Amino acid sequence: MLSDDWMGLPVWARNLAFRLACLQRPDDPALHREAAADLLSFGPDWDDRANAMFQQAEAMEGQPPTGG
């Protein structure tokens, strides 16, 4: 979907989809970065949340995997 019409969904729906994906893969910094970059595409209202997600991804890379 992202490659076809990435603006096709409202920001709240995209945010929800990324949150669900992040819950399924909580130790995936690449996914968190992709979600954060997506939020930055929707204006300054989401910048704080996006920056927090970038910081979470950085923190994840500094920690050993939890192994589930």
Q: What would you say this structure looks like, in words?
A:
This protein is mainly alpha-helical and 68 residues long. The chain has four helices and no strands. Helix 2 packs antiparallel against helix 3. The longest helix is centred in the last third of the chain and has 15 residues, at 47-61. The chain is globular. It starts with a helix and ends in a 7-residue tail after the last helix. The mean pLDDT is 82.
Please describe the structure with a list of short key phrases separated by commas or semicolons:
single chain, 68 residues
Please outline what is shown here:
By secondary structure, this protein is an all-alpha fold.
Q: From the helix content, strand content and strand pairing, which structural class follows?
A: mainly alpha
pLDDT under 50 segments (min length 5)? none
Number of helices: 4
Written as H for each helix and E for each strand, in order along the chain, the element string is: HHHH
Mean pLDDT: 82
The outline comes out as globular
The termini sit apart by: 29 Å
